[in-house]
Structure of Fe2OG dioxygenase domain-containing protein:
Amino acid sequence: MENMLSSAPLPSSLPDRFILLPDQRPPASSVAVSLPVIDLSRGRDEVRRAVLDAGRELGFFQVINHGVSQQTMREMEEVCEEFFRLPAADKTALYSEDRFKRNRLFSGTIYGDRYWRDCLRLACAFPVGDTKNDWPDKPQSLREVIEKFIMPTRGVAMELLRLLSEGMGLRPDYFEGDLSGGDVVIHVNHYPPCPDPSLTLGLPPHCDRNLITLLLPGTVNGLQVVYKGEWINVDPVPNSFIVNFGRQLEIITNGMLKSIEHRAVANSALARTSVAAFIMPAADSLIGPAEEFVSKDNPPRYRPAIFGEFIR
């Protein structure tokens, strides 16, 4: 628990253990590219084309008019920020460095180095049922708010997968069942103000390992995405979700859709809290390129693997 940034006074200078090598530090981005913004209330044919085009071009996009109420999104942001303001004594029992523990609080040591982040990880089964009893009981409204948020958020993800399926010539329910039947894993990422953001990162460059991710980005910018070999800053649209594809979607489509590297930068003045909802396949799912994307001219680029083994 002593590693938790949010439970310690802000240092006047960046501790040495957080300083990255020069070639790993975040250079200034000069690329001006905006993520596509897709209005899910438009006609289905238009939305289907937009989702597929954005996925092929950037692997990241934003969705608005998605059906999750603004109140639900704001309540989720507020309760997550409130959680990280709790006294350390109220969070100690949650802290764990066991990567395979379903629900835990941890610091930015997960990648073997030190990154300027604290994270609350929660596993959400569907239906939620008794699994919420394993979530923190403080703040008092946390369990209720997360359940209220995650149900429609998962619904948005499943609708996007249906749109992708239709656009790629698959049956609309292709991704239902085991391919999306695992937990929805929530990462509440908290990035406290950093003494020197030029020397460290909140999250290192990485690709998500799941199927599809919806991010509630919060009000402070910090997400960067690779585009044509350079890092671009993401400027979220109000009341939007940022969507990106995980490795499993890349594998299933045999590389037609890409899982794109992204990272989080720190901020010297403001704390940032974001919420990522990861749609996961069932642990025993065998995932490989779908036969619809394999041919003599386009052989399999990935070997099939059990998802649980892939994660391990």
Observations:
- Residues 190 and 273 are 4 Å apart (CA to CA).
- The chain has one domain: 14-311.
- The first strand starts at residue 37 and ends at 39.
